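ugh ok fine here u go
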Amino acid sequence: MSEKLDTVAEPEHPADDMAKAFDQTLPELPTYASIKSTRIIYKTQAGTNQIIALTRENKFHEAIFQGAAATFQTDWFHGLTEGSRRAYSDAIRRFIDWLNATGYESTDINRYDCLKAYEAYCMNQQSQKRSPLEFLTAVMNRALASPGLTDEDFGYLKTLLKVSKPSKGGDVKPYTLTDWFNLPWLRSVLGEQKYLQLESPSRLFLSFRVTIAETLLHLLDVRAEWQEHPITTFEEPACGKNWFRKWNYMILRRFGSFDSAGQPRDAWTELLWLDLVRPSDRKSIKTLLSQSCIESLVSGPWVCGQRIRSWARSPTIFHPDYQHVYSPLEERLMAWLVACEAVQPTDIPKLKTTDYALEFNQSGRLIAMECCYYKGRASSTRQPAILMASDCWTKAQYRYFTGLPVSSPVFQFNVMSEKAMPDIREGFAQQGDISFLWRIWELPSVKRRIDAALRRAGASSIFLDAALALTQGSEPVGIFAKTPESNIGAYRETVARSLPQHIFSLTHVKTTAVHAGSDRYRDGDLINHHSHTSATEKHAYLTDANKDFVNRAGRVTRLVLNDLQNVVYQPSVSAMAAAVNVLELSTRVVEATGSEDIRVHSLDQSIERVQNDDIILVPDTVEQALLFIHTIAEAEARLPQMLAVRPDWVERTLLIRVEWMTRNLARMRSAAEAQKQYADLKPHLPNLFDYLLETVE
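structure:
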C-alpha cells in the first residue's frame, strides 16, 4: 500500500526475495537498435549493381529514404517476384536520382509537395502515361509498419501519403498488329488495295491466325517424321563448341533426300537444308550433291577445287536438345495461337494441358476444344470461345498438345520475352528464331500450304504479304544502333525504310483479336481520303464520340434507339445546306442610304427572287436585324409544333430561311443594337407562324 494512503509501513514479504531470484534467471528484454541506412544496393536485370543514395542532406528526403530502406527488408518485399522487386527498386532509384539531379529542396512550407512535384515532372516533361506514385506510395505504405521510424518520420510519411494520391493516367493506347505494320513505305510495296486491308482488324487477324496455324502444323509434321527416327548416340559436350558441324553432317546424311540437281525432294529435307546449311555455302553444297550422292557429303568437302571449311550452322529446329521437346520457335507459334483466343498475355505462360477440355465423337475424332484458365488480374476463371475441330488453328493446337505429357505446362521457354527485330533482308544470314521463321515463309511449299488454307478459310493473304514485304526494308535498329550517337528516333528519321524495333508481342495479337470481334469495315471504308493517317483516324476519330463509327461497330446507343422510336421524319441536311449556300452567295449586306423615303414591307415577306434577280440586298439597319431576330426566335419556339403538321415546309423553307438569317446577322453591324432593343419590343411583335398551325400537310 502506498505511504500516502497508509503511514504504517508493511513488513517485507518473504516472497520478494524469491521474486528477485526468479528475475535474475530471466534474460533482459531485447532492445531495437536504430541503424540508419546510407545506401541501398540492388541488382538490375543485366546483373549489374545499382546504388540508391542521397547526395544532399534534407530531413524530409531522409525520412522517405529510410522508409524505402525499411520496406526493402520486409518479408513482404522478399516474397515478391524478382521482376516486381526490381520494379519497386527502380521506382525509388529514379525518384532519388531526380532529387539529386534537380536539387529539389523540401522545407517546412512545401514538405508535402515533393511526391506530386516528381509526378508532374514524369507525366508532363517525360510524357509518362502512368503515375510513378503507384509504386512509391506502395513502398511508403509498407514503411509505416517499420519499428525503426521515429515518431516524427512516421507522422510525416503518413501525412505525405494522405496528400499524395496518384493521378489518373491518360487513355491507354492499344497496340495491335495494324499498329505494328504502320509503315508508310509498305504502301508502295504492297499496293494500295492490299495496304488498305491492314486497317481492318478482322481481315488481318484471320489472315494471321491461319498463317501461324499452318506454319505450326508444317513444323509438327516434320517433327513427327524426325521422332520416328531419333538420334540417340550423339553427345554434344564431347564435340566442343563446334558440335553442330558433326551433328549437321550426321543428320543431313541420314535423313536428307535430294534429286539429281541437288534440290530437296520433300518438306523434311527442305527444312533440314534451310536449318543446317549456311546460306553462303548452299550453292556450293548443292553443286556437290548434284555431282555425287548424299554419301559424298563430308564436314569439309572440296567443291570445284576449293575446300569448304564450315558449311554447317547452329540449328534452330533440329537441335539435339529439341528431339523430344518443342523448340522455342514452336512454342512461340503456339503462344500466338493462344493469344488469338484473347487470353491475357501474362497468363499464357502459366497454362497447363489440364486447362483445356477436349470433346471427341464415338470414333475418337476431335469435335471441339475449350480453354478454361485462371486469370490472375481478375482473380477468377475465364472461358474463351469454343474451338471447333474443323478450323486449322484448332488442329494445330491439338497436335501440339499430343506431344506434351499429361498435366504438364504448355510452355517451357519464356514466350513473353521481347524479341528484337532481326535482319530479315534478302541475302543476310542472321541467326535466330524470328529470322528463321521468315525464311520458312519464303519456302514455296509452305507458301502453297498457307495459300490453300487461306482459301478454305475465306481469308486474304494480307499478313503473309505484309510480313514478306518487310524483307525489302532497311537494316533493323539493332544494326543501326551500333553506330555512335544512335537511337530509335534517329533510326526512324535517317533510314528510308525503317522496321519495327521489336517483333509483335502477345499483347498485339490479343488486342487485335478483341478488335476483330467488332470490326465492321467494308471495302469502301478502307480508303482514306483524309489529311491524317489511318492510325490517327483510328485512335483519335473512331471513338464513341463518332456516332457513325459506334453504329457501324454494332454498339447502338440509347440515344440512337430513342431517335429511331420517336422520330420518323428525317430532313435532308445536304439539300438544305446547298440551298443556304446558294442564298448566301447571292446576298450582299449594304449600309443604309439615309434616304427619308418610306416603304412598308410585310414581316412574312418571301425571300424568293424572280428569275431576273442577280443579287439579294440586305440593308444593315436595326429594323432589318430586328426582323431577322424575331423570325429566328419564333421559329425556335414553334419548331416542334410545325414539324408535326408541316414537316416539308419546315425542311424546304423555314430552316433554310432561318439559317440564312443567322449568317446575315453575323455580318451586320446593327445586330448588337437590335438584340438590345428586342427584349423590350418582343411583347409587341406579332406571332408569325400561327396560321401555319391551322392546317396539316
